[in-house]
């Protein structure tokens, strides 16, 4: 209170700090939607600049109203995490996506929660250290993002074939891979009058030896080209092959609508359970900082553990496994009072709930059109945050078993809705 200079303000005005942050979270979906309009990379860059401004305002200005504005911005730019997630998943071969997704979701506790808890355990009290670290991380993030290429899948869906070729060439050079000659579906390629059947067969054989980079990316559909090497600056590489996309038209598809409803339920439940189970840390005996650190580490383990499960049995059944073991972890909390058993249940619960979060994120790009993913993420996060408002109140309901019963019911409902998830229709 003293460090933030809030001791002169009423409880109501201080409480508004949290409320305004939540308003920012609620409208962050509007920012995420811009990643479909301007690209994943530009949306991340814009959010990073706004983060720098917000942290700078809190560092240099002690005025409460300046903090209101800064926290509103902080909440709004939270869409950056989802945009980064989408960019990473869309830029990698399918076999590597779940590894990267687990790292992205683990970055929050690794970079924020764990260091902050260790800092407080060591006796640190000055918030200025957090502000300085935030400013440095924002600058570093901005310049690193400038180096990262745009999502190939996004460029393909937008018909930006020239930029797509440049990005694929950069990615190939970075990985030490030769792209060879290839044709992206959607481009218009003029016929080569000098092409003969004999040298076409020879060329096809050569192309097959060099096409692993494209075939493994799952981001473009490739057909072999003739002897002509295309210049990405030519008009034929424009948007002539891009398809018009409409969110409202996509929502008319029954499979898409059903998947969206199921994913919203899953997001609401994993978000609600995550925050509610965290309140049970107060029943775990010992140092609160040590318990918080253990909780953060269990979340990181849950991200990677669920990733391995997903590789083994797929996203849908991984979600069911995570919900099932969440139920198993929560049931003993109805009966036991032993602090050690409660600690085991809470930390194992956080493990599987965070694992469910990881898979819930990963399933979005799997079942939705690339230009629908930002909309689905934004809508899911918005509804889940509204739903999660009630988690602190529910956690305090007496008797103590009542919140756990509610958690069990919600978890069972989410597992049931997961059964109705369907893979998206196969596209060329």
Gyration radius from CA atoms, angstroms: 24 Å
Fraction in helix: over 70%
Strand-residue proportion: under 5%
Number of strands: 2
Large-scale geometry? globular
SSE pattern, N- to C-terminal:
HHHHHHHHHEHHEHHHHHHHH
What characterizes the major β-sheet?
Answer: 2 strands, antiparallel
Strand numbers in spatial order across the main sheet: 1-2
Count of helices?
19
Structural class determined from secondary elements:
mainly alpha
Poorly predicted runs of 5 or more residues: 190-242
Straight-line distance between termini: 58 Å
Global mean pLDDT: 79
Report on this structure:
The protein is mainly alpha-helical. 71% of the residues lie in helices and 1% in strands. The chain has a two-stranded antiparallel ribbon. The protein is globular. The N and C termini lie far apart (58 Å).
Any descriptors?
two-stranded antiparallel ribbon, mainly alpha, 19 helices
Secondary-structure topology with pairs:
Elements: H1 11-26, H2 28-37, H3 40-60, H4 64-76, H5 79-90, H6 94-121, H7 128-147, H8 152-158, H9 161-174, E1 183-184, H10 197-210, H11 212-217, E2 222-223, H12 247-251, H13 254-279, H14 288-313, H15 315-330, H16 339-367, H17 373-388, H18 391-395, H19 401-418
Antiparallel strand pairs: 1-2
């Amino acid at each position: 209170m003293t460090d933030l200079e809030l001791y002169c303000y009423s409880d109501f005005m201080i409480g508004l700090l949290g409320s305004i942050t939540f308003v920012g979270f609620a409208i962050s979906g509007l920012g995420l939607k811009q990643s479909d309009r301007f690209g994943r990379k530009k949306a991340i860059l814009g959010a990073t600049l706004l983060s720098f401004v917000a942290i700078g305002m809190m560092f240099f200005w002690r005025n409460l109203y300046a903090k209101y504005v800064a926290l509103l911005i902080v909440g709004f730019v939270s869409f950056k995490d989802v945009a980064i997630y989408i960019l990473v998943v869309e830029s990698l071969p399918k076999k590597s996506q779940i590894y990267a997704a687990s790292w992205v979701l683990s970055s929050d506790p690794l970079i924020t929660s764990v260091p902050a808890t260790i800092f407080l355990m060591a006796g640190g009290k000055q918030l200025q250290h957090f502000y300085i670290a935030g400013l440095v991380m924002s600058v570093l993030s901005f310049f690193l993002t400038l180096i990262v290429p745009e999502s190939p899948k996004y460029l393909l869906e937008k018909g930006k074939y020239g930029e797509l070729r440049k990005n694929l060439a950069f990615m190939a050079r970075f990985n030490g891979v030769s792209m060879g000659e290839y044709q992206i579906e959607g481009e218009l390629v003029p016929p080569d009058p000098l092409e003969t059947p004999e040298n076409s067969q020879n060329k096809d054989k050569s192309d097959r030896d060099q096409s692993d980079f494209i075939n493994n990316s799952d981001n473009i559909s490739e057909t072999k080209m003739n002897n002509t090497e295309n210049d990405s600056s030519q008009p034929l590489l424009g948007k002539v092959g891009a398809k018009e996309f409409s969110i409202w038209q996509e929502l008319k598809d029954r499979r898409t609508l059903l998947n969206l409803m199921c994913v919203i339920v899953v997001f609401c439940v994993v978000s609600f359970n995550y925050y509610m189970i965290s309140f049970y840390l107060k029943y775990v005996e010992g140092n609160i900082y040590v318990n918080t650190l253990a909780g953060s580490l269990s979340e990181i383990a849950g991200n990677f553990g669920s990733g391995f499960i997903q590789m083994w049995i797929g996203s849908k059944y991984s979600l069911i496994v995570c919900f099932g073991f969440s139920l198993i972890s929560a049931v003993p909390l109805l009966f036991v009072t032993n602090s050690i058993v409660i600690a085991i249940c809470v930390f194992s619960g956080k493990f599987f709930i965070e694992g469910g979060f990881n898979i819930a994120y990963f399933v979005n790009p799997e079942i939705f059109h690339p230009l629908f993913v930002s909309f689905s993420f934004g809508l899911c996060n918005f509804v889940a945050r509204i739903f999660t408002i009630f988690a602190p109140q529910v956690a305090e309901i007496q008797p103590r078993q009542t919140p756990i019963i509610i958690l069990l019911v919600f978890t069972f409902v989410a597992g049931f809705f997961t059964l109705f998830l369907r893979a998206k229709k196969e596209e060329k």
